[in-house]
Design goal:
By secondary structure, this protein is α+β, with helices and mostly antiparallel strands. The protein contains four helices and six strands, in the order αβααβββαββ.
Length: 127
């Protein structure tokens, strides 16, 4: 096992600070990319990369992108869940980079659910 260097401690501190921001309410949105084996096989890494690039491109500081395991809907991967502060989470399915950019622009930045790609709001289906 390698020793921790001072620069490693700074990276750990920054990561934990971002995590605490979500808990403390300093961020307005959290995007979870479902990256179980099924999600990765379906293209979740491309979705994660697209989201990270969008955060940098738009210089968005109040949105967190995180990963989770399988959400149990393997046939609908790749999927993300978007949680805006004070609103029910929205699960988006069957994604690619273009759909992800639209969701980021319209839902994450502007607050409008992209119903054509949404499977569920909270635990209810989108009609």
């Amino acid at each position: 096992m390698s020793k921790i260097k001072p620069e490693d401690l700074q990276k750990i501190r920054e990561k934990m600070s971002r995590t605490m921001n979500v808990r403390d309410g300093d961020t307005r949105a959290k995007i979870t990319v479902h990256m179980g084996t099924c999600g990765i096989a379906a293209g979740a890494r491309k979705i994660m990369s697209a989201l990270i690039a969008l955060l940098e491109e738009k210089e968005t500081k109040d949105v967190i992108v995180t990963a989770s395991g399988c959400a149990g809907l393997c046939s609908r991967e790749p999927m993300i869940t978007v949680e805006l502060k004070g609103e029910a989470p929205i699960k988006y399915v069957d994604l690619d980079e273009e759909k992800t950019r639209k969701i980021f622009s319209e839902h994450v930045l502007s607050g409008f659910v992209v119903k054509e790609y949404a499977l569920a709001i909270g635990s209810e289906r989108v009609g």
